[in-house]
Design brief:
Layout: E1 5-10, H1 24-33, E2 38-42, H2 51-56, H3 58-71, E3 74-80, H4 81-85, H5 94-98, H6 109-129, E4 134-137, H7 157-179, E5 182-186, H8 196-205, E6 212-216, H9 219-222, H10 228-235, E7 239-244, E8 246-249, E9 269-272, H11 281-290, E10 296-299, H12 308-322, H13 341-347
Parallel strand pairs: 1-2, 1-10, 2-3, 3-4, 4-5, 5-6, 6-7, 7-10
Antiparallel strand pairs: 8-9
Length: 352
């Protein structure tokens, strides 16, 4: 068994236009001071990182590596959540996603899609330049508006959705194979891949691609009332990344899994800071250790109550306290008998 690495911190939700959260060097120093050993970088946020420049320039990547080494922190992974989401966008969401993409592709869904796919492809080479072996992204969604089957979905609608997802993502996955990087999809409501069954459909659509893997985040499962511990058993060979995020589900007489149209503070299912929700992290860290997961445990803050500064400070200690220092021997070795095969046969009543 190998020891899980951590704690790491996903920077996206901490970005601001004021110091120390407005540049890579300053936010890395801030994270390091709280005890984080790595940062996960959102590649769309140019306050921290220029993906296009990193793709064109090994020197730029080397400068960033040197800068972070001087601070005493490393990169756990890169994130292309925004760009991956825009590889597949249902027209109902065109106007919303235009606000998250460059001006030159706004108002043109096809140009936006091609730009997004190119960004995710570029991130494969950039990950390799940084010596990284995983990257996290979203699949995007074409069928999400038809999530609930009423009016009745036409026969073949879901199958056609995943066939198209396969056509869009398999060439991208091939680029990740060429660069030796696993593309880990965050299984998330609002994506076409939001649970185990939908991941299976997506995996089939990309031909079981070896680079199609999972960023495990139990918070998205507890809000769906999915068995998040059993999920690890079912997908242990595909789980290559780990977001440590807490959540709770408190149904009422008026609200359940869907949450109605309430804000995050008033939803039955909502994200919380680490230790404030219902996720059994002791069991998760134990399962991942038993299955020899050796990636990073990365904190993602999305709490509707606790201030991010407090959450970041407490999160580093929470993860450190949950990482298991895996054993290098069996606990009852002291009682070993030293028996050889002949003794074993004798104990079984078998004549050699």
């Amino acid at each position: 068994m190998r020891k899980i690495k951590g704690p790491g911190l996903f920077l996206a939700q901490f970005a601001q236009d004021t110091a120390p959260h407005n540049s890579l060097a300053s936010i890395a120093k801030w994270a390091s001071d709280y005890g984080y050993k790595a940062i996960q970088i959102p590649t769309w946020d140019r306050r921290f990182f220029d993906l296009d420049k990193a793709y064109d320039s090994q020197t730029y990547c080397d400068e960033i590596k040197g800068q972070l080494k001087d601070i005493g922190i490393e990169i756990s992974e890169l994130s292309t959540h925004f760009q991956g989401q825009m590889v597949s966008v249902h027209p109902a969401y065109d106007a919303l996603f235009d606000g998250q993409c460059p001006a030159h592709v706004r108002g043109n869904p096809e140009k936006r899609r091609l730009w997004a796919a190119d960004q995710v492809r570029k991130a494969a080479l950039v990950s390799r330049r940084f010596g990284l072996s995983e990257l996290v992204s979203f699949t995007g969604s074409l069928a999400w508006p038809y999530f609930y089957p009423y009016p009745q979905r036409p026969a073949g609608l879901v199958e056609e959705c995943f066939a198209e997802q396969g056509r869009r993502w398999k060439p991208i996955l091939n680029v990740y194979e060429d660069n030796g990087v696993d593309l880990c999809f965050e299984i998330h409501p609002s994506e076409d891949v939001f649970d185990g069954d939908s991941f299976d459909m997506f995996l089939d659509a990309v031909g079981g691609h070896m680079r199609c893997n999972i960023n495990y985040d139990a918070s998205h499962f507890i809000k769906q009332q999915l068995d998040y511990l059993g999920f690890i058993d079912a997908y242990r060979d595909r789980i290559k990344m780990f977001h440590v995020k807490d959540a709770e589900f408190n149904p009422t007489a008026k609200q359940g899994v869907y949450g109605g149209f309430k804000g995050w503070l008033e939803r039955a299912g909502r994200d919380r800071s680490l230790g404030h929700g219902q996720v059994n992290f002791k069991a998760i860290f134990s399962k991942l250790a038993a299955y020899d997961f050796a990636g990073w445990a990365v904190y993602e803050w999305e709490c509707c109550l606790e201030h991010p500064e407090s959450a970041a400070r407490n999160g580093a200690k929470f993860i450190s306290d949950h990482i298991i220092e895996v054993t290098d021997r069996v606990f009852d070795d002291f009682a070993a008998t030293g028996a050889d095969r002949a003794t074993n046969l004798q104990l079984l009543g078998i004549r050699a």
